Amino acid sequence: MRIAIIGAGVAGLTTAKVLQQAGHDVVVYDRARDVGGVWSATRRYPGLTTQSPKAQYAFSDHPMPRAYPEWPTGEQVQQWLASYVDVFGLGPRLRLGTEVTSAAPDGTGWTVRTAGASERFDRLVVANGVFCEPAVPEYPGLAEFTAAGGRLCAGSDFHSAEEGRDKHVVVVGYGKSACDIAAAIAGTTASTDVVARQMLWKVPRKVGGVVNFKMLLLTRMGEALFRYIRLRGFEKFLHGPGNGVRRSLLNSVGSISVRQFGLKELGLLPAGQMEDIVRGAIGLASEGFFEGVRDGTITVHRDSTIARLGAREGAPIAELVDGTVLPADVVVCATGFRQGVPFLDADVTARVLDERGNFALYRQILPVDVPGLYFNGYNSSFFSPLNAEMAALWIAADLVGAVARPEPAQMRQAVAEQLAFMDAATDTHHCRGTKIIPFSLHNVDEVLGDLGLNIPRRIRAAHWLNPVDPKAYRPITPALLQRLSGLTDTTDPVPVAGRASPQA
Q1: How far apart are the first and last CA of the chain?
Q2: What's the whole-model pTM score?
Q3: What is the pLDDT of residues 340-365, one digit of tens each?
Q4: What are the φ and ψ backbone dihedral angles of 375, each rounded to 5 degrees?
Q5: Which of 76, 146, 375, 480 has the fewest other C-beta atoms within 10 Å?
Q6: What are the E-state strand segments in 63-213?
Q7: Residue 353's pLDDT is what?
Q8: What is the pLDDT at residue 503?
Q9: Where do the DSSP E strands lie in 328-456?
Q10: Between these two residues, 84 and 284, which has the higher pLDDT value?
Q11: How large is the greatest C-alpha to C-alpha distance in the chain, in angstroms?
Q12: How many whole angstroms separate alpha carbon 111 and alpha carbon 101?
């Protein structure tokens, strides 16, 4: 088939690679002039690093270079993705610097339009990313603020610490990107203020200064500490007779964080306990952030928002809801993203979304009521490359009818139940159904379960206490490709236990 993929980030590239290996003619569009999506040079902010260590933020068949630090920078991740393009020969498939203006059903296929061009494809994969449209608040007084020389921008449009040198910078937000930016510019600005609507729990890179956080939260045991929609195996004990032990394990991380960062002394103690992180957001602590608060180079205004922008005595300012007035040459909004598909028409979009505006995708991939359309990357997780890679395999199998899908009514019901569960589990903070944290591996298991493939039980068992290793999933792709080529009996699962994993 001829397949269009919109987006050349993690999800778009792995989809292109898998579908090309399966024999399809693939074209990848991206409006940026480089690959990487959120890691593109057009979107990187100062201080950007991965949230997961390099060993976990990787494809099964393309690990990050050994020379990289444990938490690679945004530039290093982009270079790694560029090397993925080279290794798997994806360069000729890319149409970079090309924005898709519309993608519409056309008989049995899709017509994709760009500026001055139109092409027809058999299938369409949307991989534009759930972090592609910054959500910048509309503040009163913006015209007065800009007339006085003030600048309002999204975090992804603030590319260098030099843009804030000797200026009064206000950073809005308290997620990882907000704290990364504040830590990166503190000390070079005239002032750095962080306006935080809500305090969030921050996990140390090394808990107690010793144990890497991946040993606690990037294992199957760590994921099992949070109740999933369907309990299985040891999870039934953890959320039943062992519930007290489970809560103690989880909240002990919070207690250590409070002491390690001195949150009480800094006045930055979040409400609730560490157990509540799944209901909001979990952030890896930005190096230097709490140190900056302690030494006064960063000031946090907690439980507050900007009421208006404006000017005072000819200088730009930001006024908070409590009346505090901050000098504000630059206001950087690290306030999240909108999940949008502006290139799809209203009819298709209505069939992709539920009545509340959530993406209604079976397995985070398939809109049940739109034939020939798939999504990838709408499963944001701690293991985003791995989740996207496994979703790409599901798409490859489904293209040739090799996925045993339930009936449409059953899939719709499953989607509705999953969204209702995530509403409760995350207090609706699931980015319109596109964020699956902290249930990354449950998603992987469900996708591979549909394919009748998975890594051996002994390796999955080892991942209960050790950080999940994406390389363990390397045999899955060749096993599926062999099946799809007709070399094996498609009625039986392809055994992958014991298969060798060749070196990259």
Answers
A1: 28
A2: 0.93
A3: 899 999 999 999 999 999 999 999 99
A4: -125, 145
A5: 146
A6: 94-96, 100-106, 109-114, 117-121, 123-126, 133-134, 151-154, 168-172, 191-196, 202-203, 206-207, 211-212
A7: 96
A8: 29
A9: 330-333, 337-338, 361-362, 366-367, 373-375
A10: 84
A11: 78
A12: 11
Q: Which residues pair with 337 in a beta bridge?
A: 134
HSE, CB side, 13 Å, CA atoms: give it for residue 261: 29
* Tokens 């019901």 sit on residue: 413
Q: What is the phi/psi pair of residue 438, to 5°?
A: -100, 25
134-143: average pLDDT: 96
DSSP 145-173: HHHTT-EEEEGGG---GGGGTTSEEEEE-
Residue 437, token pair as written in the block: 């944290």
Q: What is the residue type of 337?
A: F
Residue 344 parent element (H or E): none
> What confidence score (pLDDT) does residue 478 get?
97
pLDDT tens, residue by residue, 456-496: 999 999 999 999 999 999 999 999 999 999 733 433 433 33
* Residue the block writes with tokens 């630059």: 330
Q: Which residue has the tokens 């591979």?
A: 448
Q: What is the mean pLDDT of residues 137-166?
A: 97
Tell how strand 315-320 and strand 306-312 pair up: antiparallel
Query: What mean pLDDT do residues 104-131 have?
Result: 95
The alpha carbon of residue 376 and the mean position of all alpha carbons in its chain are separated, in whole angstroms, by 11
Question: Which amino acid is residue 473, in one-letter code?
Answer: Y
What's the average model confidence in pLDDT over 107-119?
Answer: 94
How far apart, in whole angstroms, are the C-alpha atoms of residue 218 and residue 404? 30
